[in-house]
Amino acid sequence: MRWAVGLLDESGVATPRADAEMLLAHALGVPRGELRRLAVLDRALRDDAVREFAELVARRAERVPLQHLTGTAPFRHLELAVGPGVFVPRPETEQVAQVAVDAARAVVEATGRAVVVDLCTGSGAIALAVASEVPGAVVHAVELDADAHSWAARNVAAVRGATGAVVHLVRGDARRAWAGPADAGGLDGACDVVVSNPPYVPPGAVPRDPEVAEHDPEVALYGLGADGLEVPRGVTAAAARLLRRGGVYVMEHAEVQAGAAREMVAATGAFTDVRTVADLTGRDRMVVARRTVDGSVGPAGPERTDGRGTLDS
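Above: the chain sequence. Below: its structure as tokens.
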């Protein structure tokens, strides 16, 4: 462990001790919490486990994402399968999921059922969190990229087998997903919550961490347009189309995009109560809004708030 922590620290890994422990636990096939008990018992490491651990540490020192090496990423109470070709879900996105969970739960408590859509689902993280945490929610998710869709399908099947939670996953363009009225197989005006973590990094803004810049798929990072919000604009237009009046929209963005994201949502004329909500670290990381009740333009200009609480129904 001293060797592994030292190598990872020299390589610039932000959390060398935690990463080394997770890689050792993975090599041994035990939970991380079991490592101390094994040390107390003076359990000898198998030669193959030692070799595997050394290889994993060496690859992590090359800044291969930890989640690619273990094959899993934690997200709220879930363990999701991830690897090359899919965006690794981040802890900050858990708060985006929380807003969607709270909004969906409020609708279920009021009406017995909520229709939730996750646009640009990636690994399926947000959709699966809502489906597994909100009984009564009917959850749909869409992903365009073939590789990411395959990972999402794998996670949807695994979570359904483990918990019974169902996500209706399709492959397609988030901007046009489920277009049309319900009697034609669409969801226009029928959704209670639309949530999205779309690509939003501006062109030229190369992520600092090699794990992101070299391993996360570009299609999941770059939002196109001079401001990186071209894809989010399409997602926002889709949300306006899909949501019923009074429905909730929540979209993740970069901290520096808070003002632009509020203006983008307000400019549609389809939303009211447009606000920025901070993540658990206090950073402005999502825009939240309601579909206007009467279909008219909302208040003049978006409003900045720091609310972290749940949305009322």
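The first strand starts at residue 72 and ends at 75.
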